[in-house]
User: Which sequence fits this backbone?
């Protein structure tokens, strides 16, 4: 049961991070309980790819190079000489082919095959994956570890493809492991790097969906410098989430760490992580240049199995700083309740979803 809740909560996080998962095609996924993360990703791809097939697989111009009996595109004279194709009355040509065999489709096919071959996927979802793969007969498989995810190009009106490729990246980049023999296997859960990115995106997307009037955004904070001061070498101050209502601002910085507290070896004591406090204080103080106290900060940690986790409110130099722990493996209603509680400082007079305090 605990694993079911964990996987279900991951789906909810994904549905906020990727709004396309709220489309009706994913209703079946939302209604299901999954025993493991592999089967969840398989179900998401089954629903998403099936929806895409209704309008046809994406086609794009892909650069090809081949030895041809006639001229097509641009002649590669140097390559023709090196390959001695002229003696056979052929030329090496480079040309653009409008084809389904494009990188996004190759990624989709390769990820579905990866889940089919190495994932703990139910028989029903394996059957669905096999049916969908029939439509990818003319699409090549590629080695997923070699994909340069940030270089993938999307055209306008391709939000559905972008979402599916993001799901593929979570599988291929966040779960894929390589054995010493070079064979693949899938981890039981996403690695910390991908969970940290998803956690940050989820919290921002939650407030954008549930509290758009608070203008949720990842904001650049200007350094409070004296006139004429050189800022060329100062690092950028960029919040994960900034919420604003009236003259009040709440800055939230999400933290995904295996250990949320730090041990002072010299004194044998447990303390908050000093660098995290310095960071949130820098955000708050530089955002509140008039020292009004109307800017507050929250360090929002994902819960670990430590005996002591942050759950404190302090006033430092007139600024409210909260260190909170969000338990992502509890019931979803309780997760939402914790997120709602954070915005109470912005809306203290509200009776309703935000009507609970930071403490």
Assistant:
């Amino acid at each position: 049961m605990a694993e079911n809740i964990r996987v279900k909560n991951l789906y909810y996080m994904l549905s906020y991070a990727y709004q396309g998962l709220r489309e009706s095609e994913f209703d079946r996924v939302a209604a299901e309980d999954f025993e493991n993360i592999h089967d969840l990703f398989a179900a998401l791809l089954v629903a998403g790819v099936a929806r895409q097939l209704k309008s046809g697989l994406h086609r794009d111009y892909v650069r090809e190079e081949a030895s041809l009996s006639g001229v097509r595109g641009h002649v590669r004279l140097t390559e023709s000489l090196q390959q001695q194709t002229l003696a056979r009355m052929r030329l090496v040509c480079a040309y653009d082919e409008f084809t389904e065999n494009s990188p996004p489709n190759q990624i989709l096919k390769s990820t579905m095959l990866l889940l089919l071959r190495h994932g703990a996927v139910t028989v029903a979802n394996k059957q669905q994956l096999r049916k969908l793969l029939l439509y990818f007969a003319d699409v090549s498989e590629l080695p997923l570890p070699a994909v340069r995810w940030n270089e993938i190009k999307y055209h306008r009106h391709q939000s559905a493809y972008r979402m599916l490729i993001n799901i593929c990246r979570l599988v291929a980049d966040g779960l894929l492991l390589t054995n010493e023999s070079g064979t693949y296997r899938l981890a039981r859960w996403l690695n910390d790097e991908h969970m940290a990115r998803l956690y940050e995106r989820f919290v921002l997307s939650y407030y954008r969906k549930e509290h758009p009037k608070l203008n949720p955004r990842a904001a650049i904070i200007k350094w409070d410098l004296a006139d004429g001061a050189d800022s060329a070498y100062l690092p950028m101050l960029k919040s994960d989430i900034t919420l604003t209502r009236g003259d009040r601002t709440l800055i939230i910085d999400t933290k995904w760490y295996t250990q949320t507290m730090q041990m002072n070896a010299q004194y044998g004591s447990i303390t908050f992580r000093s660098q995290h406090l310095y960071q949130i204080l820098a955000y708050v103080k530089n955002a509140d240049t008039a020292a009004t106290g109307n800017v507050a900060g929250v360090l929002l940690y994902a819960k670990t199995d430590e005996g002591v986790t942050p759950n404190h409110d302090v006033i430092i130099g007139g600024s409210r700083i909260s260190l909170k722990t969000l338990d992502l493996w509890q019931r979803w209603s309780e997760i939402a309740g914790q997120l709602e509680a954070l915005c109470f400082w912005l809306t203290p007079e509200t009776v309703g979803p935000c009507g609970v305090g930071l403490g």
Notes: The longest helix spans residues 192-210.
